[in-house]
Amino acid sequence: MLNQVAVEALYSATYVENYLDAVENLPDEIQRYITRIREIDVKHRSYLRDVDIFYEQWANCPTNELESTNATKRNRAMTRIQQSLIAAQELGDEKLQIVQQLTDLIETKTRQLDQNFKNLDYASGHNSSRDTREDTPPQEEAIDPDEPTYCLCDQISFGEMILCDNDLCPIEWFHFSCVGLATKPKGKWYCPNCRGDRPNVMKPKAQFLKELERYNKEKEEKT
């Protein structure tokens, strides 16, 4: 089993990595939403100008019912007015959806940053012991000594947990808080021991197998 210093180092590296991942793409994502909103505004103004033009055409057509040509022009102008108004309304609805998505994105990123900051603060030593984590099982509860343990903290299963996508991972399951997660990530996820340069990329197999052999040897020595 990894010693305390190594575990704390993994905590810190993981939290910093997740913190950077959370903020790295945020400006680009926000910019995409803002760009789309601007495009919608341009189209929306264009439709409103069309409404003014077609209304003027409709209003300037003589209302003499005997003139079928004029009646046709008025009907055509009214149809175009309705089409432009419907298109403008659809753009308005899309804009509202984008604003809501943008709000949700910022709120989600804010929660992730808050969680990563708390975890990083913990890993830096502001909390004196892992036993003080909010999601640590109450110490007064009786724990079966034969119950299997998981995660970098080598504790039993509790709270939200995530499975490493490396089939050979010796630990397999990890507590969200121990690996700096607030929500389940999309796609592949590898634990700090199995990942490469990013959480969704596994380290080279030869390197992993070498580290796995050392890990198993240390575990046998402790038992």
TrEMBL record:
So where does Zn(2+) 2 get bound? Answer: C164, C169, C191, C194
Renumbered to this chain, region (Disordered) spans 120-144
Residue ranges annotated for the PHD-type domain, each copy included? 148-197
Instruction: Assign the protein's first listed, main location to one coarse class.
Output: nucleus
Q: Please give a single GO biological process term from the UniProt record.
A: chromatin organization
Query: Where in or outside the cell?
Result: Nucleus
Which PROSITE patterns does the UniProt record give?
ZF_PHD_1, ZF_PHD_2
Domains: entry comment: The PHD-type zinc finger mediates the binding to H3K4me3.
- Function text: Component of an histone acetyltransferase complex.
Q: What is this protein called?
A: Inhibitor of growth protein
Organism, as annotated: Culicoides sonorensis
